[in-house]
Amino acid sequence: MREPQGPISRGARLIELMPVFAALVLHAVSHGRWLVCAPAMVGMLWAVLAGVRLDYTPARLLLAGALGFAVGVVMLGVSVPPTAPFPPSIFGPVCGALVGLCVLCGLGRNRYYAWTYACLLVALSMRVRALPGMAWVLGAVVLSVLLVAFVEGGFLRTGLRGAVGFGVFTVLLVGLGLLLARTVEASEGVLMEAVYRMTSGTGSGGGSEFQSQVDIRSISRIPRGSERALLVVSGAKPERLRMRVFDEFDGERWTTSEALAKERLMLPSGGAGEERLLALTVLAPLGAWLPAPAGTRGVDGARPEVQGGWVMKAEGLEGTALVLRAGPEERLPPEAAPGESLTVLPEALKVELRPLAETLTGKARTAREKAEALEAYFHHHFEYSLDVNLKGEGSPLAVLVREKRAAYCTYFASAMAALLRTQGVPARVVGGFAPEERNTLTGATLVRERDAHAWVEVYLADEGRFVAFDPTPWRSRDEALGLTQGPPGLLGNIVGAVGTFFRKLGAAVRYHPMEQLRAVGSSPVFWALLTVGALWRWWRGRRTGGRVKAGRRAMDTRDAKLAAAYARYLRTLKRRAGLVPAPSETDDELLSRLRAARGDAVADVAAEFLAHYREARYRGGLGDAVAWGALVERLDTELREAPPRAG
Q: Given this model, what pLDDT does residue 565 score?
């Protein structure tokens, strides 16, 4: 299919680009990519109004795709695209590349390529369901294509036959679109999940809020945690970040008791010299809970509600930078001994687990000794696995302990807490994060979804506080989660630092845009850069303006469009043919040199431009800026296609 050639009005170019504009709007709405699509649309609109056209070349096509891909990578730090046939690390850059290709082909008037890339972008953007207004934007894409076909097909001039033909074309287009949508929707449940698993090795679901209860089932399988970044912690790497405390167990699930949920506490105070500071930035929604290490004494930047178990509740922290003031060690504050509620188990389960607990704790007498014995037992005799099968004789926890079955952290923590309770030791399960990814160059720790973890807290009477014990076998856990790679080198730390910076900046812009605008507006650096830019623009404007005025005086004309067309003509000769007029050289002499260097076909186009130029300059003819621009474009095309003459 041949692309349209020749001059075209601004209105016609806007009609050509309507499918691209609609696709960009749809992508921005569905994926939250306004930071990418809005500048692209503004740039395209400016280019159309200014009459700018980009030449389509394979090199520029690759450059546009690569630039869009890079922008998509950077945007991963701003916001993660929705669940798609591919993981976000692939999905975002691919959509960015399609945006770049749409813009280049649209500005180069390669509209069929531009529409093709726009349709691909629409197909990927439509992965988001139940988004208000999406149907209207998608309808705009279809209607814009139909409008172009209607205008350029000349149906207004062909009467009834043309109207019938256009109606048939519309029905076929809409019908095929609906059929394709129904086919994709019908196969998506199987096909998309399979593609997602093949490309990412994970399931496609999962949220960021830590679960409100811990279920213990005979058979369980969970996907490997995603790479999605949730928090950035700067300062000393915390061993654990606590979010939820579960102190009731009915044999099948751990929950937070009503008494613990209603309890309100005050964070302990401490000497300023004994505190350590942790800067924490929330990158993604975490529900209503603030992750914090044990021993946190204060939070700057938020006013959390401290509930029983020393967990903190605070909402709307996304994109917020906080400072946690904590003690020198990760230790919970002292508190009164809990009642018998933390040793309660269903009677049948207690009878089943008590003999196992007595055997495993052996000669241990104190609560600390029993907890350490059980912790060591799980470390040395168990393997970590995301696939759990605890079918057998007795309860799932008894099967786990007795037969040393593989499981994951919530099962190990549940089993250890239940075993301790059979021995009269107060124990509870705690959920949160165990971060591992620390950048040694910046001292920042990145907390991802895969770092979600569960452990046990045991009340030790000799300390008068709850103390953490972690029964999870970490060696096999790292192997199961694919975390056995060595620490990153210098280059890896630099790349990680850049990624973390963009993640923090993106979260702040996404969740608190007005605050960021106020911060920029009050920054002296911003105003200094703005002043420098304005001065540079003024200085350059004086230089270029002086040259344009001098050119007008030399041509004895005040027609700015005529002067600009002639300057563009000379630039084309210089860029494509290497011809620069001498100070005393006439236009005809320069034309003779062009004819000798590139042939008659090229020279004839230049001669036609000069004829129009002289008509407007010397005889006062009406100038046609569109015709001048079309002739210069033809000259540029001829010079690119015509090889230089030998000799």
A: 82
Strand 253-255 and strand 248-249: the pairing is: antiparallel
Residue 573 gets which letter from DSSP? Answer: I
Measuring CA to CA, which residue among 373, 377, 445, 452 is closest to residue 409? 452
Quick count: other Cβ atoms within 10 Å of Cβ 296? 25
- Summarised one tens digit per residue, pLDDT across range 528-557 is 888 888 888 777 666 554 444 444 444 445
Q: Would you call 330 helix, strand, or coil by DSSP? A: coil
Return the pLDDT at 437: 85
* pLDDT at site 80: 63
Short-list 447, 438, 451, CA closest to 497: 438
Count of CB atoms situated within 10 Å of the CB of 447 = 25
pLDDT band for position 167 (50/70/90)? low
- pLDDT, one tens digit per residue, over 550-570 is 444 444 455 667 777 888 888
The DSSP call for residue 273 is: G
| Residue labelled with tokens 């060696």 | 475
Position 442 pLDDT exceeds 60 = yes
What is the C-alpha to C-alpha distance for residues 485 and 242, in angstroms, rounded to an integer?
26
Rounded Cα–Cα distance for residues 61 and 607 (Å): 32
298 touches 278 (CB < 8 A): no
User: Which pLDDT band holds residue 646 (cuts at 50, 70, 90)?
Assistant: low
- The CA distance from 317 to 300, in Å, is 12
Q: Which of 210, 206, 237, 238 is nearest to 224 (CA)?
A: 206
Q: Determine phi and psi for 530, rounding to 5 degrees.
A: -65, -40
- Are 605 and 634 in contact by the 8 Å Cβ rule? The answer is yes
DSSP label at residue 4: P
DSSP 474-488: HHHHHHHTT--SPPP
How deeply is 442 buried, as exposed, middle or buried, from its count of CB atoms within 10 A (0-12, 13-18, 19+)?
middle
Residue 374 burial (C-beta neighbours within 10 Å; 0-12, 13-18, 19+): buried
HSE of 264, CA atoms in CB hemisphere, 13 A: 2
- Identify the three-state secondary structure at position 242: strand
Joined together, the tokens standing for residue 221 give 């399988």
Statement: residue 251 has pLDDT above 80? yes
CA dihedral 565, 568, 573, 576 (to 10 degrees): -140
CB 71 within 8 A of CB 100: yes
Q: What is the mean pLDDT of residues 334-359?
A: 92
Task: Enter the tokens of residue 99.
Answer: 């945006």
**What's 556's DSSP letter?**
T
Q: Tell me the three state secondary structure of residue 382.
A: coil
For the stretch 118-160, pLDDT in tens is 877 877 776 554 444 555 555 566 666 666 655 555 555 555 5
184-192 LR contacts (CB < 8 Å, sep 24+): 192/85
Give strand pairing partners of 248: 255
- Closest C-alpha to 102, from 114, 94, 93, 120: 114
Tell me what the pLDDT averaged over the chain comes to: 78
d(C-alpha 217, C-alpha 252), whole Å: 7
Residue 407: DSSP 8-state: B
Alpha-helical segments (H) within 382-408:
396-403
Alpha carbon 457 to its chain centroid, in Å, reads 36
Query: What's the token pair of residue 184?
Result: 């994709």
> What does pTM read for this prediction?
0.57
